[in-house]
Write a structure and sequence with these properties.
The structure is a homohexamer of 232-residue chains. Chain A has 232 residues and is α/β, with parallel strands linked by helices. Chain A has six helices and eight strands, in the order βαβββαβαβαβαβα. In chain A, strand 7, helix 5 and strand 8 form a beta-alpha-beta unit. The longest helix of chain A has 26 residues.
């Protein structure tokens, strides 16, 4: 079926609501929530837009094929788990539903994909991983998202990692790649450093990510164990 | 669920592919075909756009309600039957699939809704009604769509009713409302009149449609019977 | 100065922040709040857009002039009072600030103009009129905005008049013009009628507004007095 | 040839530059000049846009045909005379070229069509008619375009008729239809009335135009003769 | 003449229809055909868009000049040969006309430029070169366009080189630059390799093209002769 | 205040009209003039657009902060001096006003920022610096802007540096970075070289600017003194 035709699910995967019973290798969950953004809203339409764009890359029955490498990827079970049902204004309700849906998708799929939404959804999504011992997170972002309070709220798109670190003792390390800009909140930077966040301010490109990942692995391990101790 | 969330089906109706077994009061079938248009293409995206727009009017569980008239519409079974799988270029294949899908939807739903697509799809859609004795069609269009051949093809968006009249002896009457313009094909007009088409050139508005329908009913009946006779 | 030049204030009026001391005939207050909308956000940009559009109609020094009627409007003192400072997410804070700013503008200007923003701002704006005895409001809207709760919140753009009627004993009459649609909340309609709301479902056009206003004036007076009594 | 194909000339007419020798029934001349507009520029692209849009209505070889009226229009010689070569900034040069081109097209075509461009081009276009005794002009516009000076210039889009009346003794009558708004220049209105302009302030619609034209014809004749006398 | 003015031909070259007699150094032929695309149509408007964009680079009378290199290009005879007259739906007719027009332009111009249109037009365009012994083609594309059949057609935008290789014994070598992606048709890749296609999967940038061209020349010659032999 | 709220001034700086008395470290002056452009107009809206975009980077009360470098920028006095009042068509008046406003802003602010507008405004802006002995200018542009006359005017966006060099004996050196293209006016290039302009044709990127600036400083000094001598 050509990309402009048919009901738009992620990669034309079957639609299996997240609160039903199924198993998959990859599952897509949309989180259409954008009411905390400080400038131009609209990220609520992102999950649908990603679904429509994905139809150009729908998994063919014979799988993906790469001509020079002879690469063939087939047999992958992909599922579109739909969207979290978001209320407007009642963000506490929204966050609870996001965490519940993310937990369910984690249980049912080996590789869950969560597509927001504004950055505030990172907090309720991370909460769905509160059972992982010594959780490490790699954040790719221009901003730290570690502000304590902004615009009279503690749950905006500036604060998800601050809230997560407060709520999740198992979140022991965050590596942030791609930071840039000069309008940082000094208190947030200091707080992040106290918590052991590793801040990376360079322009992000492929080779740097590679080398970064390599060096990070070593760093993380030791960093994590020392952290684990300091909290122990 | 708010209109920006969730998999976009028509009115949030369940997706039941047209080639499976189901029953409904209303069923939506998309026909994303636009390769016969003579100017700006893009109608292939129309079924998807109609689905997304329909989410603002999704049937509430308690039904539609009209405050002054006390009108309550509930219990309607609506189904989204998906889209016809359209090949590019091979229009004969496309037309066969459109007719097949339309026949299936007709059998399964009391009120089938077919959403194109350019005007050429009218022909394969009408073919799905070739078993209706004395079929009457009301066409609301600025153009007659009765041209014999245009741009070296007999199956463009200018010709669907010409082809239908040729192929379907049971298509005994067409009433065309809303005709306008001065670039008509004189041969098409003459041919339409020979076939008994009723041409209506006035600007179309609500009251005219009402009165028109009233008068048409009478006209059609007699017109139809005489036609039936003449062909009998 | 041509419309594309200069700092954009409403009608090129001087900018006098609403929390400073000034007097005017007309004052503009922007309320850039849109986080309760159920579909496409963006009304937060409306006050700025209205300011920019208004520059095409900036009050000339010699006043407005109508050639056939010999009408000349001059000497009007117009002020742009700026916008309410809106936090994201913390809607209670937003509503308190909206009410405070609206109260201030009411005191300083004979004709205050409040430009939203989504429909939820009607509630905090009406609260700024809680000292008016027997307040009558004329609402021009397709919807009733009298829903008790929607999307898990009681303060969305569907509920401002419900909240206002609950909070303001002096709000004795609302006339709603321009209602249309079939997705009304039956409970809201019933509640509105119990409260004495007058619902008007006709298409809205100029002459109807005129005659409506005429008849409304009489109706309102008697209706108001009887209401005032019933509450007395 | 379908509307999206081919070099875009007006109605697919042959391109005959206005400064060459030809004869036609209808000729199109573009005047892509917009530097006097007080707000959003871009009318310089209008002649090209009109040409592209016209391809949907290109004159068929067999002529235009109207089905109900049996109307057939054929044999019309249409020409696209190209555009005036507009310099930026040097508006005097631009105006001279516009007048010269318009004069040439008038000589070569029975029905010249001039497509601007902003309203200032009306002045150099009218100058091409300075040899018509007792010239009457019907202007369809929301504004009077009779301002003496605006934005430090006497040749903006607000002044073409003022300049024309000053420069052309043969321009004896202007009927202006469709005026609206309250930001008129009182001096311009008074000056227009002194010159005998007839101002019409009603909303413009088809039937009014018809009746207006009917009554205008009579009015104009007598008005013209009296004017001609008063100047005689 | 400024870029927004005048009839839009390629580089303001004179319009000489391809089926008339003329000679030129460079000639532009538009092929506004896009009905085989599998996703977003609209390339039918490309030739016109290229013409309009080219007006910003219209050849000055004194020729092109490069300040540091002292480069001066003058005396070039450029022609706009118009567009192929494309029917909708009847792609065989379209292809025949494309080949005929391309043959004519090849005879009349030393450097013909063909501007589509979707990728399917590559096939009828290549057919116009069926008289060139040992034809080598350099294709710059992300995809191979060597699929045997897609969407029930053998003439889509995925298949032009497959069809050309089948139809043209003189097409002895194709070098494809810029391939990327993982949704390749394995059968097409294998078939291309059997036919001697050289596939290049690297990101395309200037220096690589240069070095590629250098090495290709050598490769091609030997490759070609061996091929020529194998067919001999 | 969030970026979508409030009157849009540059970086939320206070609005101090340029013709009033004030002092600042940084001052913004808009020059909304675009009637000399040869293609697409609209730069008249640029100062307003820059103001709106700047609100995302409004100077926080505590100043700008850079996390890794510990950089803190606070205490800067920024002012929005408004726009020059531009007439249409009367470019001499526009240029006089631009020069007058730029002179005033230079006196009041240590770092004046002038935001156009099309390139022609460079000339009246440079005139505001005619009292600087041995003025050096670094121009970052794809074009030389040194044409003597274009489109029948000597003051278009192609000529500002030519006019400035003619009018300002103190303008002793111009370094032009980023030149590209092959449609240069040979006379302009020769004239620029006679006047001692340094032309730089390389693609512009960060490191090149840095090294360029470094080498330029030395070059300029000696070049200037020799120039100063030659004029002395």
């Amino acid at each position: 079926m050509l990309p402009f035709a048919g009901i738009a699910t992620f990669l034309r995967a079957p639609h299996r609501p997240w609160d039903e019973a199924w198993e998959a290798d990859v599952a897509f969950l949309g989180v259409p929530f954008d009411i905390t953004v400080g400038f131009r809203p609209g990220a609520r339409f992102a999950p649908r837009a990603v679904r429509e764009a994905s139809l150009r890359y729908a998994l063919p029955p014979e799988g993906y094929y790469h001509p020079q490498r002879g690469f063939q990827l087939a047999g992958l079970r992909v599922v579109d788990a739909g969207d979290v049902d978001i209320p407007t204004l009642a963000y506490e309700v929204a966050f609870e539903r996001i965490t519940a849906a993310a937990r369910a998708v984690r249980q049912r799929a080996r590789l869950p994909l969560f597509v927001g939404g504004d950055h505030s959804v990172t907090y309720p999504l991370l909460l769905a991983f509160d059972d992982v011992p010594d959780l490490h997170v790699v954040q790719v972002d221009a901003h730290l998202d570690f502000t304590d309070e902004r615009n009279n709220t503690r749950y905006s798109n500036s604060s998800p990692f601050r809230r997560a670190v407060e709520a999740m003792p198992n979140l022991v390390h965050i590596t942030t790649l791609g930071l840039r800009g000069v309008r940082f909140d000094a208190e947030a930077v200091a707080a992040a450093r106290r918590k052991g966040l590793e801040l990376e301010n360079r322009v992000l490109f492929r080779s740097s990510v590679k080398s970064r990942c390599a060096s990070t692995c070593t760093t993380c391990k030791s960093g994590t164990s020392s952290k684990a101790k300091s909290r122990g």
